[in-house]
């Protein structure tokens, strides 16, 4: 079974995404801020991380930078409502699998997650 971490400070988005991906048979863990996401990444292995860029206690790009500095090469998909060019350039350099602008197309996201996790 695939394992996924969903990190987003908006309860509604985080819980909706968790339900959607659990219904696909994915084991889902969640984090409500960047620091919590980083702590979970240090302790657990995931097959995919869905990461909001603008979160309290640690921004998404900082979580991603920490992952790459510690050789955690888990695929990361980012979600952002704030398309700040320099931040987006940084996460692209650090290596992301996909980027979704909020409000995102959930069907497009599901297809990308299924592709990355090789779920039919």
Automatic annotation (TrEMBL):
Give the CDD domains listed for this entry. REC
User: Tell me, which GO biological process terms does this entry list?
Assistant: phosphorelay signal transduction system
Residues annotated as carrying 4-aspartylphosphate in the record are 52
| Residue stretches making up the Response regulatory domain | 3-117
State the UniProt keywords alphabetically: Phosphoprotein
Say yes or no: keyword Phosphoprotein present: yes
Q: Which InterPro entries match?
A: Bact_response_regulator, CheY-like_superfamily, Sig_transdc_resp-reg_receiver
PANTHER family, per database record: RESPONSE REGULATORY DOMAIN-CONTAINING PROTEIN, STRESS RESPONSE REGULATOR PROTEIN 1
Q: What is this protein called?
A: Response regulatory domain-containing protein
Q: What is the lineage of its organism?
A: Bacteria, Bacillati, Bacillota, Bacilli, Bacillales
